[in-house]
Design goal:
Length: 312
Amino acid sequence: MSRANHTVVSEFVFLGLSNSWYIQLFLFVLSSVFYVASMLGNSLVIITVTTDPHLHSPMYFFLANLSFIDLGVSSVTSPKMICDLFRKHKVISFSGCITQMFFIHLIGGVEVVLLIAMAFDRYVAICKPLHYLTSMSPRMCTVFLVAAWTIGFTHSMVQLAFVVNLPFCGPNELDSFYCDLPRFIKLACTDTYKLELMVAANSGFISLGSFCILVIFYIFVLVTIQKQSLGGSSKAVSTLSAHITVVVLFYGPLFFIYTWPHPTSHLDKFLAIFDAVFTPFMNPVIYTLRNKEMKVAMRRLCSQIASFRKIS
């Protein structure tokens, strides 16, 4: 039978974050501020890297693409969450829910590969500096980017292929503020135990596998830095610490939401808010505050904009 013959549910109801008016007001202000700040911060990183010739290198190429992905992270769930905070009836259509889950997993898959590409870039730059120009050529950077979007798209399509034809006949309440794949599956009017295992295995394999690759790269880099002189490695340590911080911010919530064996609703909601609102804001802050070249380039861009306004 087709899904249309099975499915009675045409929309899903979000239970939201809290019933307290004061908590909702606090979350509204906090989320709005961080959303606007993350959009402006990541846009500024993209414009700076694109327009400044001094930043046309593989590291900043991947950084600009990471900021582009963070714009997507902020936009997939945050605007609706902010709008729904003061709505009594928080709903999303069936197609809207599928679309939201598609982009969540697409962006997650792309970001995983971008983080690996950035780790590989630092590995080559620090451990094999003589091979850097050949190993991190523009062609290789393009290959990494194409691979990131291909893997992200494939991962998302595979996840949705498991669930898009499931029958839904009620209930239709999701104890969240966005369409979360594990909770979405539980609402199906059929036995989903094996399906939940397949989805968890897919997400777990990608998250744990990519994390292990990152750990291996960073171990090699840290060992190499330890052998270098203090003065020569200070810049490398600063850059590497920024990379590791971003990795922790990305994988921390991911492991708890998708691989933790005993999920709790309140913890999952907190980590989801952290991942959707706080992390996209922190990434550009981490990379700009700990990177002298980025700060200089942003000052140069601001000076050019100021000069242009004076001339106008």
